[in-house]
Design a protein that fits this description.
With 446 residues, the protein is of the alpha/beta class. The protein has three domains: 78 residues; 65 residues, Arc Repressor Mutant, subunit A, CATH 1.10.10.10; 261 residues, Rossmann fold (3-Layer(aba) Sandwich), CATH 3.40.50. The chain is 42% helix and 16% strand. The chain is built from 14 helices and 14 strands. The chain has an eleven-stranded mixed beta sheet. Strand 4 and strand 5 form a beta hairpin. The longest helix is centred in the first third of the chain and has 41 residues. The protein starts with a helix and ends in a 7-residue tail after the last strand. About 9% of the residues have low confidence.
Length: 446
């Protein structure tokens, strides 16, 4: 506590003591003719005693306060001490360059777990990592940026970071304009240029989104849908989770709103026009809506029945577009959640064949299909090849890793298990080599 505060507290206690002394003084002074002790020297000694008493009060208060503050700080450091990330920044600031083993020893953690704390700081340009032999050398690059380490969905709570796996370098020439979906992740995992994709041109060719639960695939799918809705392309979503109804609500997630600036987005979240139905509506109503039509399947618990209902709706669409001219222009985007259900034994092999047929035939009519699934390996190579755009989020399933290895190469199968939330491998045959994308946050509620 400061000198002034201690002084005030001392005066408070002192005033109580003086009050009683003053009463005694008055009584005694009247009795002895205005002298407390009866002699001048006695009064001088009396007031000296009062002064000493005051100093003792101040000393006792100061000592108690310092001990209290020490105890408080000790408790605070025990329960709310600096995080590993803050400690890493402190060591790098004081010492300078540190190897992986040196930094791990200072943080008192296993070197294999070091990436958990370091990679979020590398992503935002706070720490620079350079490979030297078989280890990495870390150095502090921009301490100010530490305030903005929320560079992805659930960034600080995630346990599976990319480790020291390096992204294969890519010389792909990406479109300079189109729909802004996110930012390219460079070979050192820093965020690079903005990723633009003309969805009106490529969405019609089919999109397959896969990844484990919580990896960010639904948010990425929503980003694609939002961009299409902004381009006045109607969207039909088969939704079994009621998540897609939130398209009509603007995003209120503070962590996601903070990330807007990283993607050049204005702090202006918004909702979109949405109509919800539990039965297939007239196709003309979907096309004329110029918004999202949500086919709500949440009340159907049986998975086979859910697939059957979607199949009937797709059959209705096929019948409608069979009388329409072929088109190279995107007229409608269909989004099917839980596409892996089509491969279940209870559903039957004919279901996936029908889905493959629907995707291929609708494409000719200007209708794109986006399938969202947990595992890319659920679909045979023929089905995967009919989906020109593959968006692969984090997965540890061995079957998926084998599929990724065959499709994209072993380098990307090594990356897939350690992708951070909101990061995906993106592959489009027209672009050639795959690359990693950090997806922008959604404008609507997630």
């Amino acid at each position: 506590m400061s000198f002034v505060k201690n002084l005030k507290k001392a005066f408070t206690i002192f005033s109580v003591e003086v009050t009683f002394l003053a009463i005694g003084y008055c009584i005694y002074a009247i009795w002895n003719g205005y002298l407390i002790t009866g002699i001048i020297l006695g009064d001088i000694l009396f007031w000296s005693f009062i002064a000493v008493l005051f100093l003792l009060d101040y000393f006792v208060i100061s000592t108690r306060q310092e001990k209290s503050e020490e105890n408080h700080i000790g408790v605070k450091e025990t329960f709310f001490g600096p995080t590993k990330k803050e400690q890493a920044l402190k060591y790098l600031k004081v010492i300078g360059n540190l190897s992986s083993n040196q930094l791990a020893n200072l943080l008192e953690i296993d070197v294999r777990n070091l990436s958990k704390f370091i990679n979020p700081l590398i992503q935002t340009g706070v720490i620079e990592a350079k490979k030297q032999g078989k280890t990495f050398i870390y150095s502090l690059k921009d301490a100010h940026s530490f305030l903005h380490t929320h560079n992805r969905h659930n960034s600080l709570g995630e346990t599976d970071y990319a480790g020291h796996v390096t992204i294969p370098k890519s010389d792909v020439k990406l479109p300079a304009e189109g729909n802004m979906l996110g930012r390219i992740a460079l070979d050192d995992w820093k965020l690079g240029e903005f990723f633009y994709l003309p969805l009106k041109k490529y969405a019609q060719k089919g999109i397959l989104v896969s990844g484990s639960s919580g990896s960010g695939k639904t948010v990425a799918a929503k980003v694609i849908v939002e961009e299409l809705l902004d381009d006045q392309i109607p969207v039909l979503v088969f939704d079994a989770t009621k998540q897609w109804e939130r398209l009509k609500e603007k995003n209120t997630n503070d962590e996601m709103l903070k990330r807007y600036r990283l993607f050049g987005m204005k702090q202006n979240p918004k909702g979109f026009h949405v109509q919800t139905t539990k039965q297939m509506v007239n196709v003309d109503d979907i096309l004329d809506h110029h918004g999202a039509t949500i086919f709500d399947l949440s009340n159907i618990t049986d998975e086979a029945e859910r697939v059957e209902k979607v199949a009937l709706a797709l059959d209705n669409l096929l019948e409608y577009f069979d009388y329409q001219d072929d088109s190279d222009k995107l007229r409608l985007m269909i989004t099917i959640e839980e596409a892996h259900l089509w491969t279940l034994k209870e559903v039957g092999k004919d279901a996936i064949r029908f889905l493959d047929k629907a995707v291929r035939m609708l494409r000719k009519k200007g209708v794109g299909v986006m399938l969202i699934s947990h595992k890319i390996s659920d679909f045979d190579p023929a089905m995967r090849s009919s989906m020109n755009v593959s968006i692969i989020f984090r997965t540890k399933y061995s079957g998926d890793l084998d599929s990724v290895s065959k499709m994209l190469g072993r380098e990307f199968s090594k990356i897939a298990p350690t992708l951070m939330v909101g990061y995906s491998i993106f592959h489009l045959a027209d672009f050639g080599s795959p690359f990693v994308v950090s997806w922008r946050p959604s404008y609507s509620q997630t």
